[in-house]
Design a protein that fits this description.
single chain, transport, AAA+_ATPase, about 35% helix, L-isoleucine transmembrane transporter activity, nucleotide-binding, Rossmann fold, alpha/beta, 10 helices, about 260 residues, 2 domains, 4-stranded antiparallel sheet, L-phenylalanine transmembrane transporter activity, binds adenosine-5'-triphosphate
């Protein structure tokens, strides 16, 4: 896995990224690089700055300083929509699926949303979605049996699967998953790890995860944040073996 880091092109290059909220520096001069096809986890205790970092990469929040490059292109000033077109997708800690629609229609909206001129779900009769595409997406995230189920009738884990399917509707270049295992059962966590392992290898994945075991199983390389800083980086084995980092991650060190 590490070979991918050394030989492939750079998917994401973050340079001196900083975000202040008044006197608070939520992300403080973070510089990191992620190779194309890499699976990276961003770990850190509550308030470390992980979500703020994601918000800046996705364009949901402007940085106070610094630059973000996606495959060499400076995207720091791009709107979130333009970043989607450039290949960035993200999920949020809170589910954004449409509860009153079926799994199939949620996937259809995601497919249309990324390609169609506007959202035309109600025109489905004259504008049939590509069933093969929705079915393939559902299969990829383990929801084939739930295609006709309303999203609000899905379990929490299935809703996260649906979110992942929606994020994959048009294969992103960079996929940002914000705590994908939050609230999942042990069995659902195992299937999440398997789903992540099955993602196309050319997709670059960064995930924020509170479950250290999941993060360490699912990624090639780990960046640890603490109080807005990038504290350490290493392979899962290196991070697991570092007691100081483990203590900080588990919140045993003071802020
Ligand atoms: N919009 C905001 N306004 C003011 N402060 C904010 C805002 N967003 C985040 N913060 C603060 O910035 C710091 C970093 O928050 P952030 O949510 O990025 O951390 P995190 O590592 O994602 O934490 P968690 O694991 O709890 O989600 C925290 O102190 C938080 O209170």
């Amino acid at each position: 896995m590490q070979a991918a880091r050394q030989t492939t092109e750079e998917a994401l290059a973050i340079e001196g990224l900083t975000r202040r909220f008044g006197a608070l520096v939520a992300v403080d001069d973070v510089t990191l690089r992620v190779s194309a096809g890499e699976r990276r986890a961003v770990l850190g205790a509550n308030g470390a700055g992980k979500t703020t970092l994601f918000n800046m990469i996705a364009g949901d929040l402007p940085p106070s300083a610094g630059h973000i490059r996606l495959f060499g292109e400076d995207i720091t000033e791009l709107s979130p929509q333009k970043r989607v077109l450039a290949g960035v997708r993200r999920t949020y800690q809170k589910s954004l699926v449409f509860g009153g629609m079926t799994v199939r229609d949620n996937l259809y909206v995601a497919i249309r949303g990324a390609t169609g001129p506007r959202l035309t779900i109600w025109k489905r009769a004259e504008n049939q979605p590509d069933r093969a595409q929705t079915d393939a997406l559902a299969e990829r995230v383990g929801l084939t049996d739930r295609l006709d189920t309303m999203a609000n009738e899905l379990s929490h884990g299935e809703q996260r699967q649906l979110e992942l399917g929606m994020a994959l509707a048009h294969p992103p270049k960079l996929l940002l998953l914000d705590e994908p295992a939050a609230g999942l059962s042990t069995r659902e966590r195992e299937s999440l790890v398997a789903m992540l392992a099955d993602l196309p290898r050319d997709l670059t994945l960064i995930l924020i995860e509170h479950d250290l075991d999941i993060a360490l199983k699912a990624v090639d390389y780990v960046s640890v944040m603490h109080n807005g800083h990038l504290l350490a980086e290493g392979t899962p084995a290196e991070i697991s073996a570092n007691q100081d980092i483990q203590d900080i991650y588990m919140g045993r060190h003071g802020k």
